[in-house]
Amino acid sequence: MFTVLLIALLRALKFKPQREPDKTVLPVDFDRQGAVNTLREMVVIPTVSYSDTTKEDSAAFERFVEKLAELFPLVHEKLSRERVEPKGLLYRWQGKSSAEPTVLMAHYDVVPADEKMWTKPPFSGIIEGETLWGRGTLDTKGTLNGILQAAEQLLKAGFVPENDIYFSFAGDEETQGESTPNIVSLLESRGIRPALVVDEGGAVVENVFPGVRKRIAVVGTAEKGVTNIRLRVRSNGGHSSTPPKHTPIGILGKAAAAIEDNPFPMVMTDTVKAMFDKLGRHSNFLYRLIFANLCLFKGVLDGIAKASGGEMNALLRTTTALTTAKGSDAYNVIPTEAEMTVNSRIISGETRESVVNRLKKVVANDEVEIEYLDGSEPSVVSRTDVPEYDKVAAVIGEVFPDAIVTPYLMIACSDSRHYGRISDRVYRFSAMAMSNEERKLIHGNDERITFRGIYEAVEFYLRLIKRC
Length: 468
What we know:
Helix content is 37%, strand content 24%. The chain is of the alpha+beta class and 468 residues long.
């Protein structure tokens, strides 16, 4: 036992970050006020998407597309643009070669906003100090603005990229629409296999990894799958004054408790291993001891994750969240049918089918019907041992020189998962620094972006495009 402990301590002492070479980063210049103004022009157009498209303001989506041509005239003069049904835009910037094309992604639809819950109207584009308020500023009109601002500036300077660059923009990402899948199918039909794809995802964050005080730039190299599963119990119903021993809701309650009391087993994916290896070296000694000796402390890590829940837990297992429930419409009537929904986020190695099968075993009650509704499998895992990942990491290092760059498993879903069909170099990074409070604004009330965030996005794409 003493020998094992000694080896573990020695491993922890040696578990330190590699020394980064000193580098000189030249500043980039661009029209900062112009970047703020164009984003504001985008935000005031309410491109709100709904699963029921009859609720949408189709004229707003068309106004947005027309506005892009007005705001970025050189992009629309020099680049080709195709409309891809139902709400996709595909631009092609012809480079000196078509051998290693790049795809830069964003979406211009936004989730609904309840104006009564906002401090300032969500589509007013109000500027207060150095903050721009509005739905979509963070998710992801800010990214789209960064891409097009960078392109407009480089076109003014006569820049021609080394390889073709495509801009892939969707107006139905928030509703898991068909625009991006159709764009991918179009590129695939033309034999185009991107050498690099960059979409929204991780960001520059702080205070998210135990023991690490420096800022962290998390680059999504994979994302979890998602599935919705319905649990349903049927009965003859009846009056609540003479209830049976177990009502449909009571049976569902036991099923819900069983699901929450029996989480999926911990899975250490290659993506998470790489993340722990990178960030663990920057942790304090206690956490370095754990992450340098995961074979010894796997159980400890599992226990910490289960107890804390949240992001750390979600990185390590398939999660299940009970999200909706229905029963009787009257207080004194036993329902003839009761149901609830489980939203599961699937880790690499699991499938939608395996999730359903496990839930059936955990619930272990034939009275509970368990039915798959919809979803998607975990994404392809992108490579990090290739020049394209190094390129993205290098650009992040130039824009955010104090941040540790690491691979990351995205817990949420994005349109970039569709590009796994034609590329294994798909990276998810929202090019801005966000505090924990700012991250909560995504899909939340009072969404807003600082001028600093607007500038960071433009600078990131200026530097990235020059390397493509």
